[in-house]
C-alpha cells in the first residue's frame, strides 16, 4: 500500500468519523506507536537475566527427557528382554515339573505306601491268633 493511498483513506475517514465515539485521535495513535517502538526496541536488546534463566531451566528439562528416552531406545535392553524371557520360560518349565511331581507322583507314592500298609495289616490279620500278641488294658500298668 502506498503512502498516498493511506493519506487519502485517512482524510476520508477523518471527515466521516472525527466526532464519533469510536474515532481514534492522533494522540492515541502516537501513544500506541511509542509503546510499540519501546516494545520492539526491548525485543531487539534481547532477553533479560530472568528470561535467560527460565529458558535454561526449560531446556535442561527437555534435554533430560530426551536423554532418558534415548536410554530406553538402546538395543541392549532388547537383548536383556530376550534373555529375561528365556529365563522366565525355563522357570515356568521347572515350576510345572514341580507341580506335576507333587500332584501326580506324590499321591502315587502315598498310594503305594497305603497298599503296603494294607498288605501288612492283611498279613497280620491272617496270622494265627497264637502268634499275634494281644495287649490287655490291665497289662499296661
Keywords:
141 residues; mainly alpha; 4 helices; 0% strand
Main beta-sheet strand count, sense and barrel state: none
Residue fraction in strands: under 5%
Query: Which structural class fits the helix and strand makeup?
Result: mainly alpha
Mean pLDDT: 79
Q: Give the helix level as a range of percent.
A: over 70%
Shape, per Cα inertia axes: rod-shaped
Molecular structure report:
- Helix content is 79%, strand content 0%.
- The protein is mainly α and 141 residues long.
- It is rod-shaped.
- The N and C termini lie far apart (131 Å).
- The mean pLDDT is 79.
Q: Which SSEs are present, and which pair or pack?
A:
Elements: H1 3-17, H2 26-45, H3 49-72, H4 75-126
In short:
The chain is 79% helix and 0% strand.
Amino acid at each position: 500500500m502506498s503512502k498516498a493511498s493511506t493519506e487519502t483513506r485517512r482524510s476520508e475517514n477523518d471527515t466521516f468519523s472525527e466526532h464519533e465515539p469510536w474515532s481514534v485521535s492522533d494522540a492515541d495513535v502516537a501513544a500506541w506507536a511509542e509503546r510499540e517502538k519501546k516494545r520492539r526496541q526491548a525485543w531487539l536488546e534481547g532477553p533479560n537475566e530472568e528470561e535467560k534463566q527460565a529458558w535454561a531451566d526449560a531446556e535442561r528439562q527437555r534435554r533430560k527427557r530426551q536423554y532418558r528416552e534415548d536410554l530406553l531406545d538402546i538395543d541392549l535392553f532388547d537383548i536383556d528382554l530376550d534373555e529375561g524371557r528365556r529365563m522366565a520360560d525355563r522357570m515356568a518349565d521347572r515350576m510345572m515339573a514341580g507341580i506335576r511331581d507333587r500332584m501326580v507322583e506324590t499321591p502315587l507314592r502315598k498310594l503305594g505306601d497305603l497298599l503296603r500298609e494294607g498288605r501288612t495289616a492283611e498279613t497280620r490279620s491272617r496270622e494265627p491268633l497264637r502268634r499275634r500278641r494281644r495287649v490287655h488294658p490291665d497289662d499296661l500298668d
